[in-house]
Design goal:
The chain contains 11 helices and no strands. It has one domain. It is mainly alpha-helical. Belongs to the 4-toluene sulfonate uptake permease (TSUP) (TC 2.A.102) family. It holds the Pfam family TauE. One of its GO terms (cellular component) is plasma membrane.
Length: 255
């Protein structure tokens, strides 16, 4: 890797770490860069996943204040995310990439609709519970746990816009502030990337130079993203999620 290519990968890592912490989809920055510099698709995907682990941890640390009071919920979510992430990592090496090419843009589009409609849907759900005299499940119930695990399978497989899917699912089924949901999302992404990375270390080929450059860049980006994302009002954060999600769909359809 030349000096110019190394600088480009490092810069992509900063961008990915920043956007991952704010919303997700940082893979759509780093993955094409690695492909452009000659890495095979699977090697690029594995190297990218390994490199983004420190950035995910950095973003989670940056959002630690918003995690207060969510320990029990987080542990439960993380357990399902860990299983899903491991399954997704196994599928990456077992299935051709075409297996997910059709469904992924559709999945992201559905998630964006949920993000946009989340305030109205949440209000309707609360109103129906009030009429029926029921209360919300503090952890979203089995539906949310299943949804998070399936999203984590996708995250372990590729991961572009998995944060958008997490926020969409939790936003509809949990009665929480969007920033607190974003904090949960950052930890879940770190869990999925981490378990996939451990698996890849033993069974997959990767480029250590690319991993190191992305790791350093994404760590810096994670802190930057936390500072920017935490200052965004819910409407602005929701708008960023939608824009990034739409860009992800376009890039996936055109690749």
């Amino acid at each position: 890797m030349s000096i110019g290519e190394a600088v480009a990968v490092f810069a992509a890592g900063i961008g990915a770490g920043t956007i991952n912490t704010i919303v997700g989809s940082g893979t759509l920055i780093t993955f094409p860069v690695l492909l452009a510099f000659g890495l095979p698709p699977v090697t690029a995907n594995v190297s990218n996943t390994l490199g983004l682990v420190p950035g995910s941890l950095s973003g989670a640390v940056g959002y630690r204040r918003e995690l207060a009071g969510q320990r029990r919920r987080l542990l439960r979510f993380a357990a399902f995310a860990l299983v899903g992430g491991l399954v997704g990592a196994i599928l990456l090496l077992a299935l051709p990439s075409e297996a997910f090419d059709t469904i992924v843009p559709v999945l992201i589009a559905v998630a964006l609709v949920l993000v946009i409609a989340q305030p109205r849907l949440a209000a309707r759900i609360r109103a129906r519970r009030e009429r029926n005299g029921t209360t919300a499940h503090p952890d979203g119930g089995p539906v949310l746990l299943l949804g998070l695990m399936l999203a984590s399978v996708y995250g372990g497989y590729f991961g572009a816009a998995q944060g958008v899917i997490y926020v969409a699912l939790m936003g509809v089924l949990l009665n929480e502030d969007l920033q607190r949901l974003n904090a949960l999302k950052n930890v879940l992404v770190a869990v999925v990337n981490g378990v996939a990375a451990v698996f890849f270390l033993f069974v997959a080929e990767f480029d250590w130079t690319a991993v190191a450059l992305i790791a350093l860049g994404s760590t810096l980006g994670g802190q930057l993203g936390a500072k920017v994302g935490r200052r965004m009002p819910p409407t602005a954060l929701r708008a960023v999620i939608v824009v990034v999600g739409l860009l992800a769909i376009v890039q996936l359809l055109l690749k």
